[in-house]
Amino acid sequence: MGKKDRDEWIVKCPKCGRIRESCRHVSRDDVRRIIRLLDAGVEVYQAEDEREPTESHIHEPPRPVAQVVAPRFTMGDLVLAEPTREGLLDALTELRHKGLMYRRWGLKKVMKKTKGLSLLFAGPPGTGKTMAAEAIASELGRPLHVVNYAQLENMWVGETEKNIEHVFHTALEATPWMNRDVNVLLAQIESYPGVVVLATNLAKVMDRALDRRVDIAVEFPIPDADLREKIYARLVPKEAPLGKDVEFETLAKKYVMSGGSILNVVRQAMRTSLRRGKRHRITMADFTHAAEREMKKSTLMSADHLQEPVRRERIRGYA
Questions:
Q1: Which terminus of the chain is less hemmed in, N or C, by CB atoms within 10 Å?
Q2: Distance of CA 302 to CAs 114, 144, 204, 306, Å?
């Protein structure tokens, strides 16, 4: 903002009151875009009309708290592609041998400071990202702090940054573990001494500045047919009364889906069987019907049910 603009306007932060260039809540770029920030709680007055300091906004939401999750899975529970498993084992290796790497092998002299470990888990929904985070925490005997980035975002200026800082500081006090989608945690990640797991379904839209701050990037792809067959075998309980015609290999080859979707198929097959009665077995037809329904789910969820259907009328003999 130029000198002329500073003379004509007084910018008030909802937290700090009057500011000149910037404050801990409003950056210089925010000030330059002040008109766009009017709806976000920043008030701008002409210099001759200065008013009393602005109080905190009454609609300010409570500070978010990370959900502490007791890990339910171990590495042995995961059915993953080999490159994915290698990435997780690399992370566990460094975490278990950090002292050896940084002290005895001299890595601390190169990096100047011992930093934490930041991981990026990227892949479609249902491919095991959250399970893998729990498995890593379980292998190391640590709790997992789960944070949904959407819950950190706040329309009020500076609040998103404060929420992020609060989450990291809270995690430090209770053994640091975090998970979920993040784009604006760059400074915190770089100096954080704990372990951060960023999980996203849309890695391509994340800030490129994140690249150098991520120590290990792990891709979680849709499993191939062989892995899908193993996932079916893992997810169908031994106690389930399967019909003799059930072939996981056939299902795995025909229907391309994630592990999360396969779990939905297993549950739906059980429901279909139970509708015929408790004494009936779960048949191949039940699994096929369930898989077909699961495949159609994405089409159903992407449909616009508020849009009126296209009307077709016959005009001069043409449809």
A1: C
A2: 46, 33, 21, 12
Look at residues 213, 201, 236, 186 and name the one whose alpha carbon lies nearest to residue 130.
Answer: 201
pLDDT band for 312, please (50, 70, 90 cuts).
low
CA 42 to chain centre: 30
124 touches 201 (CB < 8 A): yes
CA distances from 203 to 80, 130, 180, 218 (A): 19, 15, 12, 11
Are 28 and 84 members of one domain? no
Domain count along the chain: 3
Is 0.85 surpassed by the pTM of this model? no
Run of H or E residues at 121: strand 117-122
List, for residues 35-58, the tens digit of each pLDDT value. 455 555 555 455 544 444 444 444
For 26, the domain range is 3-49
Alpha-carbon distance 78 to 58, whole Å?
A: 46
243 near 284, Cβ under 8 Å? Answer: yes
- Tokens encoding 153: 């975002």
Quickly count: other Cβ atoms within 10 Å of residue 206's Cβ.
17
Decide if 66 contacts 123 (C-beta within 8 A). Answer: no
| Contact between 41 and 57 (Cβ < 8 Å) | yes
Contacts of 191 by beta carbon, 8 Å cutoff, 6+ apart: 115
Helices (H), 126-220: 129-140, 149-152, 159-173, 186-191
Beta bridge partners of 17: 13
Residues 79 and 97 in one domain: yes
